[in-house]
Amino acid sequence: MPTPDRYETLDIPGDAGIRAFGSTLKELFVNAATGTYSLMTDVRPMAERETALVSVEGHSIEGLLVAWLNELVFRFDAYGFAGKSISIVSLSPGDRDAAEAEAFSLSATVAGETFDPRRHEGRLLIKAATYHNLKVENRDGVWTAEIIFDI
Amino acid sequence: MEVLYSDVPSGVGSKGRIRLGSDDERKLLLKGARWAVEHGMGEESDLEKTESGGMIDGADPSLISTKAYERGRSQQGTLGSGNHFLEIQYVDEIYDEKAANSLGLFPDQVTVMIHTGSRGFGHQVCTDFLEVMERAVGKYGISLPDRELACAPFSSPEAGDYLAAMRAAANYAWANRQCITHWTREAFMKVLGRSPQSLGMGLVYDVAHNIAKVEDHVVNGKKMKLVVHRKGATRAFPPGHPELPAAYRHIGQPVLIPGDMGRASFVLLGTEKAMEETFGSTCHGAGRVMSRHQAIRKAKGRAIWRELADRGIIVRSAGRETLAEEMSEAYKDISEVVDVVHRAGISKKVARLRPLGVVKG
Q1: Which of A101, A111, A102, A110 is CA-nearest to residue A69?
Q2: CATH, residue A34
Q3: Where are the beta strands (DSSP E) in chain B?
Q4: Is residue A1 included in any domain, yes or no?
Q5: Residue-range definition of the domain harbouring residue A58
């Protein structure tokens, strides 16, 4: 089965959300991050001037996803840092054991630049990624995640 | 409008005009709007007309995470985005002349309404404590129907810490609105060349739209201390309530209800019936009828700013899509919403305000 587009936005009254896809968990986490950035700004014209090393932990795969996206939201809101190119260095446990594990961790490098309201497009101010109707599933080898944001 | 738009930072990635050192940020979290007044931004009389004097006791800055401090440092004195706004309005209808008189409102008077809160600081406090609460739910054996819900027993250390952190966020918000109020007055002074005093730019009221407070209420004939969390609701205390400033004690608490940028906003008063039926609360605003995407789709090919300009409303917005998301049709008609709470008796109409100029994030 071919992998669908990397992410799409969800139409929810009052809030904003995305549905991200990936053939692996790493791909899913990259696409979820790219989708999150797409709500806040347009990263396409941005440069890869700085690289941030991001590490997060969670008690479940859903918890890890929320922690990951909230870390990116924090860096954008506090320092204006927006990522254009994301690469997951490690994500454990991997795809096969994700259902049973209790401790999850991820580290990634995020390359991008500082948002400048004069040059970059401002979209939504995301407060946080939430647990509301949060989904992370693997169907027929395709990972799908749905995340709703508090805005 | 141009001066207001440039003097009050708004929108994604905007930075405040205040640079807070960590000692100053800590003081601001304890003192709220009082901090701003002590730093020359506003008058003592502003504090008298602010809920809780613009400063809620029991805030503990030591419970605030480094992340929240970082997020809050550059955002103090910023409007934000989404439904937050700063509007120049005018009083186009008075429903209760005596009450309007006590509030200093009269027909055709120009007013300013500011709708913003604790910005990224408050959001980070929420994010941080969701983790704490998630552990507390397990620790105290509480079962919840949705993962988005989180709680802890009120007397637990987790709840105590949260309340102290939330109070710091409330103070951050009061300071934020006080700073913006000050710059708004300055903007008028720059453009009109007259002092805020001579323009009569006194504060009518400042009320929180999302806060939990410990309050006295009567339940089944018994006086009890309750935690009342108003989210999407506004406090509406009746005449005579000890929390009200002396100037308003005989009329009840002013309630500010923002509508949408094209139609109207309202000033109401709290009532005894709100105390009896809704724990002293009323509505928060109009509420959306369209999702953001629906609104953007409906606005395609239209120039919302021009439609408003044709009706005499000047808008300035940083975000390209904000105006489409926030257009009038995306919201319920505020007049109908306010009529419901008025007829239900949980607050009563005093004045309707029409927008003249709007700053959106």
Answers
A1: A110
A2: 3.55.10.10
A3: 85-94, 110-115, 210-219, 222-231, 233-235, 254-257, 265-270, 281-283, 314-317, 347-360
A4: no
A5: 7-150
Parallel, antiparallel, or unpaired for β A81-92 and A104-114? antiparallel
Read off the pTM.
Answer: 0.94
Answer for the pair B260, B286: CB distance below 8 angstroms, yes or no.
Answer: yes
Give the pLDDT confidence of B168-219 residue by residue, as tens digits: 999 999 999 999 999 999 999 999 999 999 999 999 999 998 999 999 999 9
Contact A144, A24 (CB under 8 A): no
- CB-nearest partner of A124 from B82, B127, B290: B82
Report the CATH fold assignment for B81-115+207-361: tRNA-splicing ligase RtcB (3.90.1860)
CB B287 within 8 A of CB B337: yes
B244 in Cβ contact with B295 (< 8 Å):
no
Answer yes or no: do B82 and A151 touch at CB < 8 A.
yes
Shortest Cα–Cα distance, A117 to chain B (Å):
6
Nearest by CB to residue B127, choosing from A16, A70, A115, is A70
Selecting among B182, B209, B241, B284, the annotated active-site residue is B284
User: Rounded to an integer, what is the distance from CA B292 to the centroid of its chain?
Assistant: 21
| Domains held by chain A: number | 1
- Inter-chain residue contact A14 with B291, CB threshold 8 Å: yes
Picking from B14, B82, B294, the nearest residue to A117 by CB comes out as B14
Instruction: For residues B98 and B351, give the distance between their C-alpha atoms in angstroms, rounded to a whole number.
Output: 11
Specify whether B284 is catalytic: yes
State how far the Cα of B176 lies from the Cα of B173, in Å rounded to an integer: 5
Contacts of B75 in chain A (CB under 8 A): 77
For residue A2, name the pLDDT band (cuts at 50, 70, 90). very low
CB B73 within 8 A of CB B49: no
How many angstroms away from the CA of A8 is the closest CA of chain B?
12
Burial, B134: exposed, middle or buried (Cβ in 10 Å; 0-12, 13-18, 19+)? middle
Q: Which residues of B touch A117 (CB under 8 A)?
A: 11-14, 318
The structure tokens 């419970």 sit at B63
pLDDT at B110: 98
